[in-house]
Every structure is written in C-alpha cells, then in structure tokens.
Design brief:
Elements (H helix, E strand, L loop, with lengths): L1 H36 L13 H24 L6 E2 H9 L7 H7 L5 E5 L6 E5 L1 H16 L1 H13 L5 E3 H6 L10 H6 L6 E5 L6 E5 L10 H13 L22 H11 L18 H21 L4 E3 H5 L11 H6 L5 E4 L9 E4 L3 E2 L2 E2 L4 H14 L2 H25 L15 H7 L17 H13 L1
Antiparallel strand pairs: 1-3, 2-3, 4-6, 5-6, 7-9, 8-9, 10-11
C-alpha cells in the first residue's frame, strides 16, 4: 500500500512539473508574440476625446444653423421675411415645427425682429453687425483669390492624373477659401493654370491642371521640419521623414507603442506631389510607404484649407483621385497625435478632421483674414442675449434722461413760437430710433425767453 501511494505521488509531481513547464513556454511565446506585433502601430486604437476641439465644434454647430437662416433671409425681397412665414420656410431646411422662432430669439446680435410700420406685422432681418460681418468675409475672400489659385493648383497636383471633379471642389469650396463663383472668378479667369472640360464617359465636369510647377511641390511638413531643425538642432536623420506628434490628454502611450511610433517616424515615404505609377507596389515595404504617403496627403490637404480642418465626408470625395485608403476613419485613428476626429455636430454623423499642430488652446496659431472674419460671426453667436437687452435698456434710459432734462429747462411760453407743434421732446426722440444724435434741436433753439423778447424790441424800434 505504501509503495502504491509513493508511486502515485511521484506521478503527480512529475505531471505537475510538466504542466508548469508547458505553461511557462506558452507564456513566454505569448509575450514574444505581443512584442513582435507591437513594433507596428496597431490597426484599431480607441479614440480619446479632446474637449478643446469638441467645444470648438459645438460653436460650429450653432454657426451652421445661423448660416442657414442667413441665406434664407438674404434670398428674400428686401432681405426681410415675415415671422409667420419663417417657420414654414425653416422646416424645408430640416428644422422642427416652432423651432425657427425660438432659435432666432436666441441670437439677437445676428437677427432682429421688428414691427412693420404700415402692415403691423412682425418681420425678421439681419442686424447691422451681421451685415458688416458678411461684407468683411466677402472682402477677405476676394482679397485672397491669388492664394486660392495657388491652393487649387497644389490640390490638383496631388491627384493621380492632375484632374478633379468640379462638383467635389464646389462642395469643399468654403474649406479651401474659394468664392461661390470660383468656376468663373478662378478657373476660367486663369486659363494659363486651369482647363475645364466635360468627360465623355461620365458626363461630369472636371478641372485639369495645365502645367505642373516644380516650385509648388514643397509640402508644409517639409517647411516645418526645416524650422524644427534650425531652431532645436535635432538630428537630421530622426526628423527627415517625421511628423509633428502631439497626443491628446489622457492618451495612454505604452513602451512598445512608443517604439512603434519611433520606427514609423523614421520610415521613408513618397511625396504627395510625386508620381508613383511607375513603382512596384507588391512588396510590404512599398505598401508601408504608401500608407505613410496617405498620411502626408491628408496632412497637406488640411494645410491647404483656411481653418486647417475639413469634414471626413469631403475628404472621401478625393479618395480615389489621391490613392487614400477606404476606411479613412480607422486609418486616421491610428495617428491621433497628428489628426483629431471630432464627432460633435449633426448627432454624431458628422466627422471633422483637425490638424493638431495648427491649433493651440482652441485657436488657430497662424490666422488669416478669412478665418478672422468667420470668427466674428462666432463672437456674435456667443454674445449673451441679456447683453443685447441691456444695451436696449441703456439706450432707452439715456434718451428718456435727455428728454427729461430738456423738458425741465424749457419754458412753457416756447410753445407759442412753434416749438410746441413738434410735440413732446420725449416723443421726438423716440420717433427717431435710427438716429445716433441725442436731440433734434440745435443750439439756437435753447435760447432764453429774454433774448427772444430783446430781439423783437430791436426790430420794432427799427
């Protein structure tokens, strides 16, 4: 019996030792496997929110609705629309019932509701500040048309065959700072750069580049690398193919992920302006270079925009012409240190791509005139309605105070000399709401009664 128990215990110890050895080998195999996979950036990375960009898009969501109402009012006769018809017209733009009136009242610095003097009907129009902002933006867009021509030339040079659909550029004209009539003011006005033609097979209009300019083939990231090299004196080999990476706060960077990013930064790639049709794309090295070239293409496209941001849906229009990957969102999530995807606006259906290096604390680092003009509208939207009501109360109080002072200093006998025919001073001031002057009276009308009687006596004597 003792012999049998000793054999069983020896067998169990041997089996347990073999199990420990097998588990140790499997554990080391799994570790070595994870280490080998971590040398490349993972395909699926969890998106980390950056509240600075999301708050920026919350304001943009309001601005998009405001622009819809602005276009609706500007297309009306005399640029005014009755409030009763505003709700019906706004429902065609996607607004719910009775939402238009409440929305307009939220932004009194942009929209003004007044009563028609004859019809006694409430009308809605744009304020003077809103008109000034629209005029400033139009002037800024017209002034930078030469820069817009350069941006359009660079955009065409990044395409495979030097041509893009006219409709795709028309959809993204606001992002690239092109005027609404860019087909005539930009494309047809500069025939030495662009050519407009109809494709026979698809019956679509295309914009084609007439001639490639080698001076325009320098990317914005190359200028940034040169600036970093001159200012910080970094190693030329490390920044030769690198991008500026700023991860969002809260993004977890592990040891092996950091190594993978470092290897990806040193990976060479082809320029977005370079023709790659002659290269063999069957090797793994060529595919990695093309993936990094896609990052450089999107980076350059964002640098060509006015606000250094563009929606993901509009980038997808250029996917075929610029050899971009099919799953753009998953592809951009791998590089959250370079781009940021915001899903704020339109109930999460709109994806806006920001260039992280171009922004600091929610503001563009190098603003332009078009960007500043558009931010004027954002300032009007963000102004509190209480401030607008307070301004009206202060204006009314000032006019009432001026009228009270003039009434108290005016004798009753002035009514016999024609001043009383104009009514009360307060009524005169209230009737001239559009005037900036405080009173309709001149300095001569404030003379005393004694001076008036003395002048009459002199005339009688003569």
């Amino acid at each position: 019996m003792m012999i049998f128990y000793g054999c069983c215990s020896k067998f169990r110890s041997t089996k347990f030792t073999a199990f420990k050895t097998t588990a140790y080998v499997l554990c080391n195999f799994s570790r070595s496997r994870s280490m080998s996979q971590s040398t490349s950036i993972p395909k699926k990375v969890e998106r980390v929110r950056d509240h600075g960009y999301d708050n920026y898009m919350e304001v943009e969501k309001k601005i998009r609705k405001v622009l819809k109402f602005q276009d609706l009012i500007l297309t009306q006769i005399n640029q005014t629309i009755p409030v009763s018809r505003l709700d019906v017209s706004a429902r065609r733009l996607g607004f719910k019932q009775h939402e238009a009136g409440a929305f307009v009242l939220k932004f009194p610095h942009v929209f003004e509701i007044y009563e028609h003097p004859v019809q006694r009907i409430l009308y809605c129009r744009l304020t003077r500040k809103a008109h000034l902002q629209i005029q400033q933006q139009k002037q800024a867009v017209i002034a930078q048309i030469p820069d817009a021509v350069t941006r359009l030339r660079k955009l065409l040079m990044m395409s495979n065959n030097g041509r893009l659909r006219l409709e795709h550029i028309r959809i993204a004209r606001s992002e690239f700072g092109l005027p609404d009539d860019f087909e005539y003011s930009v494309v047809l006005k500069y025939p030495q750069f662009f050519r407009l033609f109809d494709a026979k097979e698809t019956r679509n209009k295309y914009i084609e580049l007439v001639e490639r300019d080698p001076n325009l083939t320098v990317c914005a990231i190359e200028k940034a690398r040169e600036r970093v090299y001159r200012e910080k004196g970094s190693d030329a080999e490390d920044i030769r193919f690198s991008f500026i990476v700023n991860f969002p706060p809260g993004f977890k960077i592990g040891k092996y992920y950091r190594i993978a990013v470092w290897k990806w930064q040193r990976l060479p790639y082809w320029s977005p302006y370079e023709d790659v049709s002659e290269y063999d794309m069957r090797s793994i090295e060529a595919q990695k270079r093309m993936e990094k070239r896609a990052v450089a293409t999107i980076h350059e496209m964002l640098c060509l925009t006015v606000e250094k941001k563009i929606s993901l849906e509009r980038i997808a229009h250029f996917r075929t012409a610029m050899d971009l990957p099919k799953k753009l969102k998953d592809f951009l999530l791998q590089h959250q240190g370079i781009f940021y995807i915001s899903t704020r606006g339109n109930h999460g259906k709109l994806h806006t791509i920001f260039l992280r290096e171009a922004y600091r604390r929610g503001e563009l680092i190098e603003p332009n005139d078009v960007y500043l003009a558009r931010r004027k509208l954002a300032e009007l939207v963000l102004l509190s309605p209480r401030k607008a009501q307070l301004n009206r109360e202060l204006v009314g109080y000032r006019r009432e105070r001026v009228g009270y002072d003039m009434e108290s200093s005016r004798p009753d006998k002035l009514d016999d000399y024609g001043v009383g025919d104009r009514g009360n001073v307060r009524d005169v001031l209230d009737s001239d709401m559009g005037s900036d002057s405080e009173s309709d009276f001149s300095d001569d009308s404030n003379r005393s009664v004694d001076e008036t009687f003395e002048e009459e006596d002199v005339n009688i004597t003569k």
